[in-house]
Amino acid sequence: MLSSRRRAIIMRTESPLANSVILEAFARTRLLLERSRITDAAIEAEVLVRLAVRKDRARYFASLQEPLGAEQSTALDELVQRRLGGEPLGYIVGSREFYGMDFQVDSRVLIPRPETELLVDLALGFLAERKAALRSECGTGGRSPVTVADVCTGSGAVGIAIAASAQDVRVIATDISADAIDVAAANATAHSVLDRVELRLGDLLGPIPEALDLIVVNPPYIPSANWEALPSDVKMEPRMALDGGDDGLDIFRNLLKQGANRLAPNGAMFVELMPEQIENADRAARKLFEKAAVGSMQDLSGNPRVLTIQRGGK
Question: Is the pLDDT assigned to residue 282 strictly greater than 50?
Answer without folding.
Answer: yes
